[in-house]
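Appendix B. Chain record.
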Amino acid sequence: MVKASGLLDDVLVSFIEERIVAVQDGGYVAIVLQLDSPGATVSDERIVELARQVRDSTVPVAIWVGPSGAQARGGAAQLVAVAQPGGLAQGARLGKAGSQVLPVDEFGPLWGSEAGRVESAFVRGDEDDLRAIEALELVLAPTLGDFVVDLETVQSREVTQGDQIRREPLVDVRFTQPSLMAQLMHTVASPSVAYLLLAIGLALLVFELYTAGIGVAGVVGAGCLALGCYGIAALPTRTWALVALVVAFVAFAVDVQTGIPRFWTAVGFALFLVGTLFLFDGVSLSWITMLVGLAGVALTFLSGMPAMVRTRFSTPTIGREWMIGEMGLALTAVSPDGTVSVRSARWPARTNRATPIDVGDRVRVVGIEGVVLGRARGRWRRRLPRATPCRPGRGGLGRGRLASGDARGWVIAIVS
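Structure tokens predicted for this chain:
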């Protein structure tokens, strides 16, 4: 059993080819491919080569489009036509295959009387399309198990489960899947993932331009960009739309430096929108993915990035409100002027004349108005606050104990 889900890209086609070759001399009676694919991104020549391998295999290669809701379009639908046999699950779809790429002189007409419909529309796995299914020589099988036991080369037996009689295969069934690295590369090569990785990678690199050194954002952004480029290279894209996406982030970077979204942000968003809508040629990008990408970029460059840059490069403003409530020490007698130390910094202070403060007394800052720097006689001088003691808990000024109970504590108010 081989499960093939997603676009038929180079990774997935190579894996299918390897599995077909591997079962030729291993005593296998059949290889079953469970298919759910919206089309192929490999060349028509590669699809023809795979179709030849499916047709010429000494072990029958059966392809079942399932489960319900699965589809086979484009080149994937044409592979089903050469399978031995092809099948549909109930609710699955086969069609929109486009013009036949398999050589007619080698494979013959694939669809017979249903060619017009299969090339432009879908045949569905339900009773309403039973006539078309029979004309295409497909098997309608609700589950993969039903499809397997119906294969001519698979022996089965009947078993009773409750009131139901079911058939089960008498052969071992083995499931295979690509390696983890192959699965990663296949996932990256899907339109939605490749688009989002490209956008995230470019956005993180712009962010890294305005941070100090090389950080996590730069490393993650480079990784996302590398994976996104791989996915874009594996998909059919419009070069001019890809250029528009890249130039959009250059425009974003211009306004990010100013910290305010302006003209270049609008230009960048317009280019990003156009690039998003026209990036892929022949494969579709879901509207949900588009909305996520557009909304994410808008929030990043209209709000997040300007705020980050303003914070990163703004000049810090040092306030003095932190001094309120701080304990200090009288370095000289304050009567009424003197010097106190608060957090190892010397501050001129003033207190009430009637309540002088002695050297070494502890004080608490209860108020401050400001610090003024002035110049006189060629030198800078500081006009700093004055201190006035007040009794804690009583309002007004005067001498008193600290609320903490410290016998040597005095409260001062520093004012200009």
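Further analysis of this model is presented in Appendix C.
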